[in-house]
UniProtKB/TrEMBL annotation:
The keyword Cell membrane does not apply. It is found in: Membrane. Gene3D superfamilies: Ribonuclease Inhibitor. Belongs to the LRRC3 family. Residues 15-51 form the LRRNT domain. Pfam families: LRR_8 (PF13855), LRRNT (PF01462). The chain crosses the membrane at residues 188-209. This is Leucine-rich repeat-containing protein 3. GO terms for cellular component: plasma membrane. Residues 1-22 form the signal peptide. Keywords: Leucine-rich repeat, Membrane, Repeat, Signal, Transmembrane, Transmembrane helix. It is a single-pass membrane protein.
């Protein structure tokens, strides 16, 4: 009975992942999981954590709702991992309170803009092999990026070779607009689609008119044959 009483008395948020260290920083719960060879985000992070360090591990993906139960979370350090994929709802549940998110020095080529634009946090995205495209451009324009790391967001790949190796900010300052390129592509695709539908309508109308004309001709031939048949009978 004493054992079960002890379990009931322990608050749910006080557990600590076995590979991490739980401590306090400035009077707030901090969970330190740096350099612990983690391949995924621990499942048993205390609910009352405010500072979470997961840097220098081997994490490859941030799934949906990865931090949803951590309502007090203010800072996440995911730098120096092997992150390639980030789900659209990766930071759902912590967007309002998060102040700092460090995703620098990973393997991120692209990211759903919905995953970041909902955040009020200061973002660090430097030193990733970015593919410069419209979504990344919108993140640069609309998200709260750390000003000290913006210049290190470099185009690892791009629609044109001349942009490769250059800071994205420098490319955009030169007047390049990746979103307008996508818009022109969408406009061309829409024009081709509309032209295809228009051509189908024209073909249908022509077939319909031709069919009715042939029917009318057959009916006319039938009517013209009636008098001669009647005369022959007399």
């Amino acid at each position: 009975q004493a054992f079960f009483c002890l379990l009931l008395c322990i608050p749910w948020g006080s557990s600590c992942p076995p590979s991490c260290q739980c401590t306090e920083r400035a009077g707030a719960k901090a969970v330190l999981c740096s350099s612990r060879h983690l391949e995924e985000i621990p499942k048993d992070i205390p609910r009352d954590v405010v500072f979470l360090k997961l840097d220098a591990n081997s994490i490859t993906r941030i799934p949906s709702n990865a931090f949803r139960h951590l309502s007090h979370l203010e800072e996440i350090d995911l730098s120096r991992n092997a992150i390639e994929n980030i789900d659209r709802a990766a930071f759902k549940g912590v967007a309002a309170g998060l102040r700092t998110l460090d995703l620098s020095s990973n393997r991120i080529r692209s990211i759903p803009k919905e995953a970041l634009l909902a955040l009020n946090a200061k973002l660090r995205l430097a030193n990733n092999p970015w593919h410069c495209e419209c979504a990344l451009q919108e993140v640069l324009w609309e998200a709260r990026l750390d000003p000290d790391s913006v210049q290190d967001i470099t185009c690892h790949t791009a629609p044109r070779d001349e942009y490769v190796g250059k800071p994205l900010l420098q490319v955009l300052d030169a007047g390049v607009n990746f979103c307008s390129v996508r818009q022109r592509t969408m406009d061309v695709a829409m024009f081709i689609t509309m032209f295809g539908w228009f051509a189908m309508v024209i073909v249908y109308v022509i077939c319909y008119v031709r069919h009715n004309r042939e029917g009318a001709c057959r009916h006319g031939d039938y009517l013209r044959s009636l008098p001669s048949t009647q005369a022959h009978a007399e």
